[in-house]
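Researcher: We are triaging several targets before committing to wet-lab work. For this one, the compound of interest is pyridoxal-5'-phosphate. I'm pasting the protein sequence and the ligand SMILES. What I need is the predicted three-dimensional arrangement of the protein with the ligand bound, expressed as structure tokens, so it can go straight into our comparison scripts without reformatting.
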Amino acid sequence: MTQNFTVSPEGYYGQFGGAHVPEALLKCTQNLAENYRRYIDDPEFQAEYRELLKDYVGRPTPLYRSEKLSSLHGCSVYLKREDLCHTGAHKINNALGQALLAKRMGAKRIVAETGAGQHGVATATACALLNLECVVYMGAEDIVRQHSNVQKMRLLGAKVEAVTEGSRTLENAVDAALRAWCDDPENIYYLLGSAVGPHPFPDMVARLQSVISEEMRAQLLRQEGRELPDYVVACIGGGSNATGSFFNFLDDLDVTLVLAEAGGKGLITGKHAASLTCGETRVLHGANTMVLTHEDELAGGPYSISAGLDYPGVGPLPAHLVDTGRAMVVPITDEQALDAAYELNRMDGILPALESAHALAALHKLDFKPTDIVILTLSGRGDKDLETYLLHADRIGIG
Ligand SMILES: Cc1ncc(COP(=O)(O)O)c(C=O)c1O
């Protein structure tokens, strides 16, 4: 039987997805779905979006062959350099696309959630460019650990609202943003930053991020004479960089898709955010998906050293990919991610975001053949994580 990885009209990938929201919010999501359908393939929308991706974001981002990673892993390793995007991560691809849509829908104010602050900075940037008012909800815990991104958002003119409920991280920030949208749907556009939430967000975010895999195919053809790699590896929080990196390879079954999720302090401790490995099927933020189990919640979860992966669920498309065996999952601990980040920094002079470092660590857990071509999405740069890297620098002998 051929597998189907496209979204159904109701927003499902297999059993995952949908729009499980209260009546008041259902009107908002339906209105958004109508406008998304209306504009996404509109030539004028696409022309404006593509021009911004090129001249403002700096796309296409390079596909860089790391000689040292290649010899370390005994295959060809390419890095898709989303860290070189304007604002330092892939998040801007989605933020600009949705901000253009919000403009067309006549929104007065944008609200967004953020964990690592990268989506917050990307949204505040898009709002500055397009003259939109911007409010970013951020967990109080994340405000401390991603301080430099908070300052950037403020300088860009965005209001950063601290969320003090629950674990004071991304999960609670999404709740707060959904509440704000529900309270004033006429004037507010909720610009969600990952491939999570009620339909149409997961599909819309994956489509806006699919430029990543579109470029990978064309670049690999030019650089290696073939369009298909053997592996595509990406880290996963909610799944925006992963779905964007996989999107144009979903039906190419010879391409192995690998998701690196946050193993935190180790799965056995319950202190992790490994919802694909340890989760159950439940509704989270309006979508039926894989969510951390009750036991992990009792252990105080979710937890990750990386704010962008510190989320109790994933988007419905990655959940479906794992459920059907189309993608494999590798949990990575904090320590493995830190070591992989220091390793790339010392070998190639590239300091990756802590999130992306999880994908780098996954390379150590896979067996490659010398002829294999591996593309790893380096989703962001590590400037925002400098304090964490310095805090743990004794691992590389720096006191
Ligand atoms: C650099 C970077 N990579 C990855 C992620 C994880 O998000 P997603 O799974 O949506 O790509 C984040 C989230 O903030 C991030 O900042």
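Researcher: Any quick observations?
Model: The pocket of pyridoxal-5'-phosphate is lined by residues 89, 115-116, 118-119, 194, 235-242, 308-309, 353, 355-356, 379-380 (CB under 6 Å).
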